[in-house]
Design goal:
Layout lengths: L1 H10 L3 H22 L4 H27 L4 H24 L5 H13 L11 H23 L4 H21 L2 H7 L11 H26 L5 H26 L1
Helix pairs in contact: 1-2, 1-3, 2-3, 2-4, 3-4, 3-7, 3-9, 4-7, 4-9, 5-7, 6-9, 6-10, 9-10
Length: 250
C-alpha cells in the first residue's frame, strides 16, 4: 500500500503527503524490526523502512530519464521522502535511542575523526570533511547507478544517522532555550543546519544522478546531450558538498 500511495501523491504533486508517507515508512520499518527482530533494530529498521521506497523511486526516475530535464520535481520528491524519514528517526531517537547502536557508532566515529569528541584539533579540518563527504557522495552515486531506485536504502540510512544524531543533541539539552542556543558542552542542533543542508542536498543529488545513469543505460540513451545533462547534475551535487565542507569547517 505505501509504495502505491507514495507514487500517487508524487504524481499529484502533493509533496507534504509524500513527506508524511516517508515518515510513516520510517515508523513502520522500526515497528516491524522492533517486533520481529528486537536485537537488530538499528539496521533492520532501515531495511524495512526503505522497502516501500524502491518501487516509487524506480518508477519516478525511469520516467524522468525518458522525459529529460529539468530535474527539479524529482529532487523535490526525493527530498520530501528524505525529510519524512529524517523526522521519523528523529522521533524514534528521542524515544528509543539505545536501539540504534550502529547509527550512534557512525556519528561517534565521524566526530572523533574530526576532532570534535575530545581534545584533538585538526588544522586541516576542511580537507578532512571534504574528503569524507566526497567519498560518501561517490559511494551513493555508484550504488544508485548500479542498483537503481535512487539508492532507497542509502536514503533511509542517511536519514537515520542524521535523525539519531540530532535526537542525541536534543536529549542532552534542557529546555527550548538550550535547544536554540546550545549549552557549554552540547551545541545547538541549529548550528548544524547550514552545512547539513548543503551536504544532504549533495547526497540527494548523488542518488538522483546515479539513478538517472542507471535509467539511461537501461534505455540505451548514449547521446551526448543526455550525458552532458547528467554531468551537470553530478557537478551540481559536488558543488553542494564543497559548500557544505566550507560551512562545516568555518
Amino acid at each position: 500500500m505505501l509504495p502505491e500511495l507514495i507514487l500517487r501523491e508524487e504524481k499529484e504533486g502533493k509533496l507534504a503527503y509524500v513527506m508524511l508517507l516517508g515518515l510513516l515508512s520510517g515508523l513502520t520499518g522500526f515497528g516491524l524490526a522492533k517486533i520481529f527482530f528486537p536485537g537488530m533494530t538499528d539496521i533492520l529498521s532501515v531495511v524495512f523502512a526503505s522497502i516501500p521506497l524502491v518501487y516509487p523511486l524506480t518508477s519516478v526516475f525511469l520516467n524522468d530519464e525518458e522525459d529529460g530535464r529539468p530535474h527539479i520535481p524529482e529532487i523535490e520528491f526525493y527530498g520530501s521522502l528524505f525529510l519524512g524519514q529524517f523526522l521519523s528517526f528523529l522521533f524514534l531517537g528521542l524515544v528509543f535511542f539505545q536501539d540504534f547502536e550502529m547509527q550512534i557508532g557512525v556519528f561517534s566515529d565521524q566526530m572523533s575523526s574530526l576532532g570534535l569528541a575530545g581534545n584533538a584539533v585538526l588544522p586541516d579540518i576542511f580537507f578532512v570533511v571534504l574528503a569524507n563527504n566526497v567519498v560518501l557522495y561517490m559511494s551513493i552515486f555508484a550504488v544508485a547507478a548500479i542498483i537503481g531506485s535512487a539508492g532507497a536504502f542509502i536514503l533511509t540510512w542517511n536519514a537515520s544517522v542524521l535523525g539519531i544524531f540530532i535526537a542525541k543533541l536534543v536529549s542532552e539539552l534542557q529546555g527550548l532555550t538550550e535547544v536554540i542556543l546550545g549549552s557549554g558542552q552540547t551545541p545547538s542542533p541549529i548550528a548544524y543546519v547550514p552545512h547539513a543542508t548543503f551536504e544532504m542536498a549533495g547526497f540527494i543529488v548523488a542518488g538522483i544522478a546515479g539513478s538517472l545513469v542507471s535509467a539511461a543505460v537501461y534505455r540505451e540513451h548514449f547521446d551526448l546531450d543526455t550525458w552532458k545533462d547528467l554531468a551537470k547534475l553530478f557537478a551540481t551535487g559536488l558543488l553542494f558538498i564543497l559548500l557544505g565542507a566550507v560551512l562545516e569547517s568555518a
